Structure formats: C-alpha cells, structure tokens
Amino acid sequence: MERKTHWAWKLFGSGGVPRELLHVHFEQEYATYVRDFPVLVGWAYVQCPIAAVRRDLAENLYEEETGGIIAGRPHPELFLEYPRGLGMDLARFERIELGPAARAFRATLDLHTRQRGWAQATAVTTIFLEGTDHERGELDPDSPKRPAPPLEEHPLVKHYNLPLDALALTKAHRKVEGSHRAAAWRIVLDHVPATDHAGVLAAMEATLAAWLAYRDEVASVCGLSR
User: Fold this and answer.
1) Are 129 and 120 in contact (CB under 8 A)?
2) Who has the most CB within 10 Å: 6, 12, 110, 124?
3) How far apart are CA 166 and CA 188, in angstroms?
4) What is the pLDDT at residue 11?
5) Residue 127 carries which DSSP code?
6) Is the distance from CB of 131 to CB of 184 less than 8 angstroms?
7) CA 92 vs CA 20, 123, 156: distances in Å
8) Which pairs with CB-CB distance under 8 Å and at least 24 residues apart come from 134-138?
9) Can you give the pTM of this predicted structure?
10) Where would I find the H helices in the chain?
C-alpha cells in the first residue's frame, strides 16, 4: 500500500489540471469503481463463510450503499456532489466511456472480487480501494496516519472554488474511515487463512499495477506529464 502513490497527485492537489479537463478524473473514477463500490464489497460478503467477517463487511456495505450509519445518503451519490459543486453537467456521468487502461483496471477489480474468493475480494476492496499509502499508520501508532487537513485547504476548494458543502463525501469518509480501516485490517490479519496469503498478495500486486496504468492514462488525458 505504501506504493499506492502516483506522480500526478501533486499536480491534481495543486490545481495543475485545467478546469475544463477536471471532469475526466471524476468520470473515470466514478465509472471504474466509485459507482459500483457497494457491489464490489457485496461480492466479498456473499463469498465469505466466516460470520464475523460478514458482519464487518455488511456494516461497510450498508454505509456505502445507503449512508445510513453516518452520511445519510449513498456514497456514490455523495461523490457526485464534487462535479455538481464545480458546475459540471451530471448527465455526462450517465454515459461515461472508459479509457483502455481504465477498462483494464475495472476488469482487474472484477476478476479479483468475483472470481478469486472472498479473501482477495476483501483485500482489493477494503484495503486497496478504500486505503491509502498511509495504511501503516492504521496499525502502528508511531507511523503517520492519513492526512486530514482543514476542509478549507481541500484542493478542490482551494484551487477550483468548490463550495464547502459539496465535500459531503469527504466529511463522511473522515467520520467512518477509522472504523472501516480497523475492520479491514482485522479481517485480513485475523481471518484470511495462510493458504490464501500468496493469492491475496498477487491480487494486490495486480490491482496496484492496473491502478498505476489507469492513473497514467487519466493524467495524460488531463494534459499532465512528469
């Protein structure tokens, strides 16, 4: 997870993407996994034979699908508040065409969530997709945790004048991610059998490679270069 970084993030975070191309990031992110994230977690849930794990996954799924615990609205809907707040045409999000690398990334997610068992599905969704390069801080109190700067310093607010009330998903994540991170690591460390460890690591490597290629593609379409 410490390798889940991309060279273009600093440009996205500093206003380096032309405003007229920013929609590319949101559309591709939404269609590759944000829109269907509850379904991806659901695949982990339905394949898992361990009741304690299913309960943690069910809580995650319920929050993502309904927002019923924290957010009050489904998280995919809250994601759309970003482009809405930036004045984008939300009709675009009903007819997204994924780029080749984005399609490959989504195919990788589908493979490891639907066809390779609950352990890989759980790791790919709750560790890789929900996690960051600061995951060590979730396990080690001496390691830095995921940064949480003031909402006024959010890149979309600071560089693109996004209204603060459009950060509903960011606020929800900050409230719920602590318990989600703890549950994700509890599942993987306490319940994944040793016989599945190699498969989980291979799934994470494949997902990381596909994600990096996908982010390269998005950066290129947004006019960014190293």
Assistant:
1) no
2) 124
3) 33
4) 94
5) I
6) yes
7) 14, 31, 19
8) 135/1, 135/2, 135/181, 135/185, 136/1, 136/2, 138/181, 138/182, 138/185
9) 0.95
10) 9-12, 22-29, 37-47, 51-66, 75-79, 81-85, 100-114, 118-122, 136-139, 155-160, 168-191, 197-221
Q: d(Cα 175, Cα 192) in Å, to the nearest integer? A: 27
Q: How far is CA 208 from CA 136, 167, 189, in A?
A: 17, 27, 20
128 in Cβ contact with 40 (< 8 Å): no
Amino acid at 89: D
Q: pLDDT tens string for the chain (226 positions)?
A: 999 999 999 999 999 999 999 999 999 999 999 999 999 999 999 999 999 999 999 999 999 999 887 778 999 999 999 999 999 999 999 999 999 999 999 999 999 999 999 999 999 999 999 999 999 999 899 999 888 899 999 999 999 999 999 999 999 888 877 788 999 999 999 999 999 999 999 999 999 999 999 999 999 999 999 8
